[in-house]
Amino acid sequence: MTAYVPPVADMSFLLGDVFDFDEKMSVLPGFGDINTGLATSILDEAGKFCARILEPLNRPGDEQGCRLADGVVSTPQGFPAAYRAFVTAGWAGLSGAPEFGGQGLPHVLQLLLDEMLSSANLSFGLFAGLTRGAAETIFHHAGDALKQQYLPKMIQGEWTGAMALTEAGAGTDLGQLTTRAEPCGDGTYALHGTKIFISSGDHDFGGNIVHLVLARLPGAAAGVRGISLFLAPKFLADEAGETGLRNRMSVGALEHKMGIHAQPTCVMNYDGATAWLIGEPGAGLNAMFTMMNAERLFVGMQGLGIGEAASQKAVAYARERRQGRGADGSLGPVPIIGHADVRGMLLTGRALTEAGRALGIWTALQMDIAARHPDPATRREAGGYVALLTPVVKAACTDFGFETAVKSQQVFGGHGYIREWGMEQYVRDARITQIYEGTNGVQAMDLVGRKLPMENGDPARRFFALMRDDLAPQAAEELEPARRAVASALTRLEDLTGFVLSRAGDPRETGAAATEYLHCFALVTYGWLWVRMAGKAARNSSPALARHKLAMARYFTSRLLPRTVALESAIRAGAADIMAADDALL
Amino acid sequence: MTAYVPPVADMSFLLGDVFDFDEKMSVLPGFGDINTGLATSILDEAGKFCARILEPLNRPGDEQGCRLADGVVSTPQGFPAAYRAFVTAGWAGLSGAPEFGGQGLPHVLQLLLDEMLSSANLSFGLFAGLTRGAAETIFHHAGDALKQQYLPKMIQGEWTGAMALTEAGAGTDLGQLTTRAEPCGDGTYALHGTKIFISSGDHDFGGNIVHLVLARLPGAAAGVRGISLFLAPKFLADEAGETGLRNRMSVGALEHKMGIHAQPTCVMNYDGATAWLIGEPGAGLNAMFTMMNAERLFVGMQGLGIGEAASQKAVAYARERRQGRGADGSLGPVPIIGHADVRGMLLTGRALTEAGRALGIWTALQMDIAARHPDPATRREAGGYVALLTPVVKAACTDFGFETAVKSQQVFGGHGYIREWGMEQYVRDARITQIYEGTNGVQAMDLVGRKLPMENGDPARRFFALMRDDLAPQAAEELEPARRAVASALTRLEDLTGFVLSRAGDPRETGAAATEYLHCFALVTYGWLWVRMAGKAARNSSPALARHKLAMARYFTSRLLPRTVALESAIRAGAADIMAADDALL
């Protein structure tokens, strides 16, 4: 198996040549000295860490898994040392708030680091991603005392974070959760309850583990309005401020999972754990959404990272593996990368992955603009794009990441099914990204039910207009068919959006349309990005790269974009046929 | 987790109400007394065996896996006893030749047994399927002495079979294989070589294990024309005719796989193993195709069986699991089967599974007709359908089986990712069915490159005409939109077939079209079958079942059939965009 090669060249191409990174950064206060050259050298270093330290632990970590003995969780060999090295090198704090010791670099660099972490070692990357999400929630919602106590250590990665939302009876529907928080009279609360599926719930990296826990105060309203958010650390501060005292929480079990075996997914028991309220009583879900939104983009990058790693390895294998005759009739055996059916699988993986990266970068740039641009209207507009695209990045990059992992595994034939080759791990690991942080069905409902209608539909309309402007006729004639195909698909998407919104009053109609609509939206967006990438490459890149990006753009629009037609048909059929089937006879 | 319920009612509906089983059997010599009632009671008993004996071993078998110690393979606890019970009950010989102790029942019953075996325990079913394929090859190609010696025990399942084709450097491209067969001068041969991925290569069920091995004779031609087929048993007959002597073959290793852990997939070393030639020198691949064609239908049923089991369990879970508000706005929590997005996943699984079963039954009926019909033209015609549809059944039922397993797992949310719930095993197990017995890419190339053009395209033309005749206007008005949609998709498929065949001279064009074409062919065929099922249910079934099948037919045609439009666009784009991408930049 060839080693993972961090795709820094493509990242650099996207930042500098496709998305005018230097110009965008130059207008953001504090980012004036950040440019593509600097970003590339940071990504280069980060990529080396991922490829040299983390990827070699990926398969052994999968085989060895985590263990729970006498209440203590052990991660696979090498993980604690790698985590310490990750923190020492400063990668944990890349985009963290400088006032708490972070490096304050742009979100877009964080996102690309996340992709590489995920390509190299999904289980490992999850520790870092959850810590960042927890820290962000504390940053935005907790009081100063909690911030001062927790953020410096969390932002630098010394301490890690975990999100404790799900219970056996409350998954997608958090309104059903039953964990209780009893006021102790001294400003603290005692948590009682059991949470499941708690990633990074415990580990052996040292340092504290900061659990953000959703629970109900006494007399709280039923449903989601009665949910508050609490902070419960594994270790409490003793009188000297050291973390000496074990809090009353414990790992009930480790979940046995399909994949991400090196990630200790815990059943957590809170048996009177001391906790502090974050934000207002009853506003827990609101605070949790800060965490979830950050995590959703992160999970999108997990899907993308798996797709990148898997498709890279499939391409490398197809270059070496010789089977069958050549297309010119030569006896062979020839490298299978020359067989059109194998190439189709490879190109699908590459086309989905590179466009997904472009979408991730574009969205993260909007996050940076939303956070720093001097003009409030520009900030608001960028924030609208981020809100609109978060469910799209999460669901599309993970669905397409899984598709890419499966197709890449297929390229290996029987070897793809054998553990030693590593391809089947990508499929097993990728599968969780479609499920957690809100299933992709939940993402689709979020897009159709909340994000399209928000602000009277302005963000969606603006986004469509932005794509349309950018799709104005290109110079290169060879790109015209692709450009026209995407422009026409965009027109259909806009009509379809109107159709979907006109039926939004009936949850059956929204549910029947949501997943297909999200995929349609994502494919049109990917089409726009392919035309943009090919157009920019024609102007800014070497002739060879320009030709290649043109071929990829044409491949995407002729082979993958047509899926939108099928999706549109399905959506326009509405909910009636879905609801008519007889439950008892299914 | 609910228990698997053998879908005997649907099988009985398909045989009796949809495909005129009694009438078809009545004209086949020897099958005059076989009818739907008899078939149903046989399937009922077989289903009980699968549900009661085999399914309880499925998850433990996955957890425990197979072991190799001191050259001896152990299957998981309970497997040897279950296998003996399977043989004793007579299930191994259901469709075997009566002259060798088989029961000689129709292929269609065998196919439905295969589906249920696969639903209950894919790893277990593979032992039976491979034995049958090996026996069939011996039956058709070996001399009388070998037949007399091996077939009685194999057909009754006392002895098992294995196919030894693949080598590390020779997978899809068998022409590269290097295993040698040296004549010993006494009519036997000594085999030297190493084969990989040998399912059922060894086990602890007792009895002999009959390996069919592809190898080269000295001086054989290069490529596939130099390949011969040999029979090498694990135990040789001693002078008393007992199987006392160990042949010179050994298990080099067990493969570590993504799934089917209870199936001992072996690396086999043949170190001068005594073997007998089957058929003519150099005709090995031809003989092996007998085995592979039987196995391909079997593997299709494996994919179907996994889809059936997974979607059954998803439906059962969705009936019980309560999350979220009702579609009528009621507070809930309501069973998630009422949520349109969940229903969409469930209905997709059911629609693909039930149509796949119909396709399997129709194809197996043609096998029975091809084997027994008194009229040679009818036999030839039926044989053409079987040849045409074999790659479709294999690839479509496994691709859709995998899709169904993934969607069914998704219905379980986070629980779907947890091993104890059993859903992730279906995904892991299903994945092999898309890869082995010729990857689904190979099936697609077989359909487009060999089966469409065979006999000047007659079988394909006849099959399209048959579907068109059957799609003549129905009585039920509610079925009209579905019928029209399928009829129109069929017209497009026929045009598309001409387009694909017109480019068949260029392997790049064939490769670029093959997978999408096979899916398009399968979806149109499924559409025809849904219209037929709904139409027959309207005439022959209870009003409730008729309404349900109508809803399913409408669901299939409005939500899944439109995929054909996207596939057609992709196919018509041709190979140019696939070939243009720069290998070095992928």
Automatic annotation (TrEMBL), chains A, B:
GO terms for molecular function: flavin adenine dinucleotide binding; short-chain fatty acyl-CoA dehydrogenase activity. Keywords: FAD, Flavoprotein, Oxidoreductase. It is an enzyme of class 1 (oxidoreductase). Gene3D superfamilies: Acyl-CoA dehydrogenase/oxidase, N-terminal domain (1.10.540.10), Butyryl-CoA Dehydrogenase, subunit A, domain 2 (2.40.110.10), Butyryl-CoA Dehydrogenase, subunit A, domain 3 (1.20.140.10). Pfam families: Acyl-CoA_dh_1, Acyl-CoA_dh_C, Acyl-CoA_dh_M, Acyl-CoA_dh_N. Residues 44-158 form the Acyl-CoA dehydrogenase/oxidase N-terminal domain. Its cofactor is FAD. Residues 162-271 form the Acyl-CoA oxidase/dehydrogenase middle domain. Its EC number is 1.3.8.1. Residues 463-581 form the Acetyl-CoA dehydrogenase-like C-terminal domain. InterPro entries: Acyl-CoA_dh-like_C_dom, Acyl-CoA_Oxase/DH_mid-dom, Acyl-CoA_Oxase/DH_mid-dom_sf, AcylCo_DH-like_C, AcylCo_DH/oxidase_C, AcylCoA_DH/ox_N, AcylCoA_DH/ox_N_sf, AcylCoA_DH/oxidase_NM_dom_sf. Residues 282-447 form the Acyl-CoA dehydrogenase/oxidase C-terminal domain. SUPFAM superfamilies: Acyl-CoA dehydrogenase C-terminal domain-like (SSF47203), Acyl-CoA dehydrogenase NM domain-like (SSF56645). Belongs to the acyl-CoA dehydrogenase family. PANTHER family: ACYL-COA DEHYDROGENASE, BROAD-SPECIFICITY LINEAR ACYL-COA DEHYDROGENASE FADE5. This is Acyl-CoA dehydrogenase, short-chain specific.
